[in-house]
Specification:
This protein is α+β, with helices and mostly antiparallel strands. It is built from one helix and four strands; from the N terminus they run H-E-E-E-E. It has a single domain (about 5-85), classed as Hotdog Thioesterase (Thiol Ester Dehydrase, Chain A, Roll).
């Protein structure tokens, strides 16, 4: 499948990047409770190769967590987005 996208080696599926990013945000801002999250949205901006390390940078603005997920090895942003927390969450 990677060859169809003109890659010379396999790439990580975007949903894997999405999942690792969401888990990092749940751990930091939602106390591991996915019900504390109202909405999550993101956009993929680059690819990730197997073996690369995710670096999730996130900051909170009210009940919105803004994030970007980078690759440590290449420093490329692979995904950007936001998470909207429910008002009832005491974080």
């Amino acid at each position: 499948m990677a060859a169809l996208g003109n890659f010379d080696k396999p790439i990580i599926h975007g949903l894997c990047t999405y999942g690792f990013t969401a888990r990092s945000i749940y751990e930091k801002y939602a106390k591991n409770d996915p019900l504390a999250v109202k909405k999550i949205g993101g956009r993929f901006t680059s690819h990730v190769f197997p073996g690369e390390t995710y670096v999730v940078e996130m900051w909170k603005e009210g009940n919105i967590v803004v994030f970007q997920t980078k690759t440590k090895e290449r420093g490329l942003v692979a995904m950007r987005g936001f998470v909207e927390l429910r008002d009832s969450s005491k974080i």
